[in-house]
Amino acid sequence: MNDAAPNAVEDAPLDALPANLVDPPWLRKPAAPKAAAGDTVVPGLEPPGDRRIVWEPGEREQWAAMRPYGGPWADGDWEREAERVRDGSMYLPSQAGFLASAPEHIARPLLAAWEPPKVTWDFDHSLKPILARFEDAAWDVSVRMAKANPFGTGPVLLPFLGADVARLMADWLYRLKSAQELSRAWVARHGLDAVPYLVPDALGKRVGPRRNAVHALRIIEGDVVEAARVHGDEAARAVAALLADAPAQAEPAHKRPKPPDLPRWLDTEALPRPVLRDAGLRLPPDAARNLVHLWAMALRPDAFPGAAEAAEETAALCDPASLTAFAWAVFEAWRQAGTPGRSAFVLPALGRFGDDATVRRLTPLIKEWPGQAGHDRAVAGLDALAAIGTELALLHLDGIARGGRYKGLQRQAQVKLREVAARKGLSDGRLADRLVPSFGLDDAGAMTLDYGPRRFTVGFDEQLRPHVTGEDGKVRKTLPKPGAKDDPALAPDAHRRFAELKKDVRAVASLQIARLEAAMVEGRTWTPGEFAAFLVRHPLMWHIARRLVWTSGGTAFRLAEDRTPADVHDDAFAVVDDVRIAHPLLLGDALPAWAEVFADYEIVQPFLQLARPAFTLADGEGRDGALARFEGLRVPTGRILGLTRTGWDRGPALDGGVQRWISRRAGAHHVVIDLDPGIVAGYVDLNPEQTLEHVWIAPAPCEHGSAPPVENGFATVDSVLLSEILADLANLG
b/e for 68-85, b at 16 or more Cβ within 10 A? Predict the structure, then answer.
């Protein structure tokens, strides 16, 4: 996206530019500091000496129910494993799990002497069950670990109310960007109850704690002055004066905002600079650079007030296409520089100004980055796709969420999609229905490509591979190149449109087919209105829908060529109940008749439906919660790993990095396969074979024997889902 003629567009005069690009706030002369009226010191004040843990309704129970890491430990293991906690030889998350699980007479003394090292990862999940169990006895270690790791461990302090935590939260509130959300949540949670703990610092001599405490007091809702009166009338009057004089924002009002340093690789003079929407003049280099400053500052909570609004106001004055080109050029310059750090504004700018062309170019890079030690970069790319928010952007986000080489990126994409779905008030499946583009196809699900003297019609096969049919009725896999007799304007444009169509549909075809196959297995339903709108009348999805058997109200049907429902006898059928894709088990004795119908009409299906193997349990099998016929099998590790393609998840890496089970959700429960010797994370070839020790159903994924049995065992699993699980197990042998 470069300027076609760099000298063809003149630079805009300064008087035509927004003030924030000509005289940005970080270059303006700072306002004189406000005279300090709050230098009152009230000596001798001390915060309350008590320490309280204030639980919200159900919170302690929720934390206590969190499954601890490590174990399970048997009765004879406690004393031996306790020694490993004392000498530090046990993996740290397992130490936390042991303290949450061990008998109290063993765990409590261990906790009192526990001095875990500093951690840099999210450790609050490991501490929460300990805190729920021991409360005040876990106070000191929780504060110590949170102080060393505010973002990852700090959330455990939310219920804490004491002088040490109040001072810590006030400090984070003023100083730490990463802890802003947490510290504000703590202040909002404890409100006026926190005031007595903050007032002594707010009226003390030490500048840092005083500044922090005043800022914290200012954001507390309610009568802060009256709450401060617990320290006396003089203290209450001094707090009133402080609050009246305190600045509205965290930084002093007179301090000049400081923009982040822009990297050396960013040369705005070499980029296609944005163009003013009305005047058609481009931004001068300094103004373009200031625009990037505004973008970067809009992402920072500690930037000057109104940074985001100023950036948006400036963007509104520029031509959208030129902003897209500028943002992509900045991105390309960043890539050519090796994607260096401290460039957090680059991908958000693509999210704000990107379009569908941006999506097509960015998505392949996002998929590659995790393999280039760029997981964080890829996650930021997912944020950009979600921010662009077009149907195509969300469709590509959905594609990453449904499959890919890197499971961490896949999970992050799933989180982003859930956020988008929640904003729209939709389930994941219903959001996915709405994301399939029509790709410019007509109501018949076709596209006419006009070469002038000849025309071609686009159609699709069962895998959504496009083909073209000429006026002579000949079907071609690809469109012929324009010839000398073709219209010089129409033909190249039609040829380009077909190339783009093939590329775009290729990106979504396998995703949509896999999505409907999963819907068949999961028993997902559509209302009659949704079925009509997103499958029958959708110009692309129609090509899949007409090749499947559906059920509604207990009757199976297909979609005839005129898109009307027809039963197995080709009689018209009215859809009035919810619709689902028929699994062979649901068709029963009618399965052969349906297979004959599809053979007569030469309908090729997009995935195995009518020819799909169906499995059931023998009488009484699995009611004890186990599938004994599969236990003891030795299978290649590669086949176990292959289960992840059909919805199975590998367990966590336990001691030695060994994943000891793989599981698949089965309704409210999980089917678990315990493995021996297990899969070594990162070295999956180390153990080439696995023994299926136990194949059982559990309330949640875990090792055999560490959870109570599920009543009625496999009889609780939906018959269709059970058939698929049995098929997976049968394919291992």
Answer: bbbbebeeeebeebbeeb
Distance CA 100, CA 68 (A): 7
What dihedral angle (degrees, nearest 10) is formed by the CA atoms of 189, 190, 195, 196? -160
Measure the CA–CA gap between 334 and 328, rounded to whole angstroms: 10
In this structure, what DSSP letter does residue 263 have?
P
The Cα 508–Cα 711 span in angstroms is 41
End-to-end CA distance of the chain: 54
Cα 568 to Cα 563: distance, rounded to the nearest angstrom? 15
Q: How far apart are CA 318 and CA 15, in angstroms?
A: 15
Check: CB of residue 345 under 8 Å from CB of residue 296.
yes
Residue-wise pLDDT for 182-236, tens only, equals: 999 999 999 999 999 999 999 988 888 888 898 899 889 999 999 999 999 999 9
Q: How many residues does the chain have?
A: 733
Region of 121 on the Ramachandran plot (φ > 0 left; ψ -120 to 50 alpha; else beta): beta
Q: How far is CA 343 from the centre of its chain?
A: 21
CA distance 135 to 641: 41
Q: Is the peptide bond before 103 cis (omega within 30 degrees of 0)?
A: no
From the list 359, 364, 422, the residue with the least C-alpha distance to 391 is 359
Residue in 361, 359, 371 with CA at minimum distance from that of residue 408: 371
Both tokens assigned to 625: 């919660």
DSSP tag of 177: S
3 state DSSP class of 581: strand
CB 170 within 8 A of CB 215: yes
DSSP code at position 732: H
Residue 672: count of CB within 10 angstroms of its CB: 25
Whole-model pTM: value is 0.58
Span 270-282, pLDDT tens digits: 889 899 888 788 8
Q: Are 326 and 272 in contact (CB under 8 A)?
A: yes
- The stretches in the chain having pLDDT less than 70 are 1-8, 28-39, 67-76, 245-260, 301-305
Distance CA 147, CA 353 (A): 39
Distance from C-alpha of 155 to C-alpha of 66, rounded to nearest angstrom: 15
Average pLDDT for the chain: 87
The rounded distance, in Å, linking the Cα atoms of 42 and 26 is 37
pLDDT digits (tens, 9 = 90+) for 300-321: 766 666 777 888 888 888 899 9
Query: β-strand 466-470 against 455-460: which pairing, if any?
Result: antiparallel
Distance CA 687, CA 173 (A): 49
3-class DSSP state for residue 643?
Answer: helix
CA angle 87, 89, 95 (to 5 degrees): 90
Q: Check if the beta carbon of residue 420 is closer than 8 Å to that of residue 462.
A: no
Strands 634-636 and 649-650: unpaired
Burial class (CB in 10 A: 0-12, 13-18, 19+), 331: buried
